[in-house]
Design brief:
The chain has 173 residues and is an alpha+beta fold. The chain has 3 helices and 8 strands, in the order αβαβββαββββ. The radius of gyration is 21 Å and the shape is globular.
């Protein structure tokens, strides 16, 4: 009987510990930007705008910004970053694959969950000097963010100065 109680106690302890490891800590993107080392190799959850089609894909919230990568597109680690590819994930993938502007900038809003890691070393910098990024593994509350495209510049004669246009970032709500 005594052994059964110890066994039950062990299951409860391991169950509590296991569930706490799997849960993401809800943080602000500004807290993540200010002290990324604090969250290194941790699962976090942030509400952000997701920008794709720019030099470095970025998560933004207000004046704060952080690099990201999608877990299903992270080839260096194989299955290290398991992704919940549910309907919300498919919606995010769709929204970030279609651009409304010639600049190719795509924006979506979502509650993002992922793991904070260092960008894998390239050999030109020491591993501990590489920047941090959030590898997105799950999303919820995904929504489209309209991107305001500015028209191409025109001269006074009405002719095009350039054929491209750029996207103005959406206003934060």
């Amino acid at each position: 009987m005594k052994n059964n109680r110890y066994l039950l106690l062990l299951f409860v302890i391991f169950g509590i510990c296991n569930s706490s490891w799997a849960q993401a800590t809800h943080v602000s993107l500004c807290a993540l930007q200010e002290n990324p080392e604090k969250f290194l190799n941790s699962k976090v959850q942030v509400e952000v705008l997701i920008y794709a089609g720019v030099e470095y894909p970025r998560l933004t919230a207000g004046e704060c910004s952080f690099r990201f990568a999608r877990g299903d597109n992270y080839q260096l680690f194989g299955d290290r970053f398991q992704v919940s590819q549910d309907e919300q994930w498919k919606l995010l993938t769709k929204l970030l694959s279609v651009s409304e502007c010639a600049s190719n900038v795509r924006v979506a809003k979502a509650l993002v969950e992922g793991t904070v890691i260092r960008v894998p070393a390239t050999g030109t910098r020491l591993p501990n000097e590489m920047p941090m990024e959030l590898v997105i593994q799950a999303v919820s509350e995904v929504s489209h963010v309209p991107t305001k495209c500015t028209p191409p510049n025109t001269q006074s004669t009405g002719t095009l100065v350039h054929e491209g246009s750029h996207a103005d970032p959406p206003k934060q709500q």
